[in-house]
Design goal:
heterodimer, A: 184 residues, 3-stranded antiparallel β-sheet, 8 helices, 3 strands, 6% strand, globular, B: 310 residues, 5-stranded mixed β-sheet, 15 strands, 18% strand
């Protein structure tokens, strides 16, 4: 961001206003790809969804949440597969290991994503990840597992093309686009 | 005395009964790993998830108390899917070495997989590594790779034997069960952790590789060890005794008795069974001046004990 910081604003402020008016827009005039509204446990919003006000109800209607209010803005150069890999690393690392779905699930998700990024993705991986969004949701003791599901589900649904491309071509779609190897 | 409905069956249970036990009273067995009636509730394996009317999500039946008018379902698609999912997660890092595992045949991973799992494995990653075949005490062998971290053994050493030898170390998927630093599992009740381990992570050193459990016949009995009279179950193998050096009694397990020993027995009773097969008198013996000599039935008193001569 051109002007990152802590902002205290009425909840009726839209995400677009927050990003472009208050935080000064994205550095170097880059285009927006997505925004995580409230910490990595909340579902990512696409660039088309940023006209939402930051109220609890409006964000909930988009399947996301205000969460901690720590807004993470992802510009056009961010590879969503690698971004999700980073996020899931956090969940796998933070899992306490007490209950089954979180202990085994978060690390499994992280390892699948690591494999995809290493260029060893399998065609079945996306289906496995999609199944986990059901199997890990609402079965754990605390909400860490559900938080990981929220980000996992939103990333692989909203940016499915990037995941499919990475698994098939063994390369990042975003990086290929940047180098002109893939069409926009 | 709440009355609740489980899978359409009405059952009235005592106050403070959990749903998992209420279901058992109604004749419905809910699969579980971490729950054991003799230990505190951990609620961590998530295997006993059930659907309860009015609850937004599945609830664990071991930690949900029965209430008046509760409607529980254990056979819906959502419950079955959750059980399948938990099994898949539990088995993802499990070595699947059943052919060389002593627990094979009495393993809850095997049993529940056959009943609720039956999916194809899709774990493409390398499995977690851990300590294999590590003796942790005079009677118990630990295999961390097979462990599903139900923590029954940890709770046993904390709550029943009160010796705290075992604990969970590390975090997340790196969690392992191990001995506390400087300790060995040598309390007089250590054998019980073998019984309560639902998988092959804790196995009996004495019984290890002696006999497959499906060759065993069970017979309920009373431990002859001391005057307490713990209820036991004798596991014996009449047909293949030659495989274990003539041993017929292969092991002794506790048998539940609320009044006397509950689910447990001591190690002396458990491992003191060898006297049944060893040095057993199978022929009449006659004592002469220096030793006892075998004799046939009907041979009468031998020269050693001639009452007339005394």
């Amino acid at each position: 961001m051109a002007n990152p910081g802590v902002f205290e604003l009425p909840v009726t402020t839209t995400m677009r206003e927050l990003i472009y008016d208050h935080a000064g827009g994205i550095k170097d005039g880059k285009a927006l790809k997505g925004v995580i509204p409230g910490g990595v446990s909340s579902a990512v919003l696409t660039a088309d969804e940023i006209d939402t006000p930051l109220t609890f109800d409006a964000l909930a209607s988009l399947g996301s949440m205000a969460g901690s209010g720590a807004v993470i803005v992802l510009d056009e150069d961010v590879c969503m597969v690698k971004a999700l890999h980073n996020i899931q690393n956090f969940f796998a690392h933070e899992s306490c290991g007490q209950c089954t779905p979180c202990r085994e699930g978060t690390s499994w998700v992280y390892r699948i994503l690591s494999r995809i990024i290493a260029g060893e993705g399998d065609e079945s991986d996306l289906k496995t990840l999609r199944d986990f969004t059901v199997n890990m949701n609402g079965t754990s003791i605390c909400a860490l597992c559900e938080g990981s599901v929220m980000s996992l589900k939103s990333f692989i649904t909203k940016y499915e093309d990037e995941f499919v491309y990475f698994i098939r071509e063994k390369r990042s779609l975003t990086e290929d686009r940047k180098q002109g190897l893939a069409s926009k | 005395m709440p009355t609740l409905t489980i899978d359409g069956k009405q059952v009235t249970v005592k106050d403070g009964t959990s749903v998992i036990n209420a279901a058992e009273e109604a004749g419905i067995y809910i699969p579980r790993y971490c729950y054991h009636p003799g230990l505190t509730i951990a609620g961590s394996c998530r295997m006993c998830l059930v659907e309860i009317e009015g609850m937004p999500k599945l609830e664990i039946s071991c930690h949900t108390m029965a209430r008046e008018g509760m409607v529980v379902r254990t056979d819906t698609e959502q419950v079955k899917q959750a059980r399948r999912a938990m099994l898949e997660f539990l088995l993802s890092n499990h070595p699947l070495d059943c052919p060389v595992c002593d627990q094979s045949g009495e393993c809850d991973l095997q049993n529940f997989y056959m009943e609720y799992g039956l999916y194809d494995s899709r774990f493409l990653e390398n499995k977690r590594k851990g300590k294999k075949a590590t003796p942790i005490g005079p009677h118990v062998m630990l295999d961390q790779e097979r462990c599903i971290l139900c923590t029954r053994c940890v709770r046993f050493t904390k709550e029943i034997s009160k010796t705290d030898e075992l604990g969970v170390f590390n975090r997340g998927s790196e969690s392992v069960i191990d001995l506390a630093p400087g300790k060995t599992l040598d309390n007089p009740y250590s054998g019980n952790v073998i019984d309560i381990c639902p998988v092959g992570a804790l196995t009996e050193r004495d019984f290890r590789f002696q006999c497959r459990v499906w060759y065993l016949t069970e017979h309920v009995s009373v431990c002859p060890g001391c005057s307490r009279g713990c209820n036991i179950s004798i596991h014996f193998n009449r047909k293949k005794a030659h495989k274990a050096g003539g041993r017929r009694v292969m092991r002794i397990k506790p048998s539940y008795n609320e009044e006397i020993n509950k689910w447990w027995i001591c190690d002396r009773g458990r491992f003191g069974y060898r006297l049944i097969d060893e040095n057993r008198i199978e022929q009449p013996l006659v004592k002469n001046e220096s030793q006892q000599v075998e004799t046939g039935l009907g041979a009468g008193p031998g020269p050693g004990i001639q009452p007339d001569q005394k």
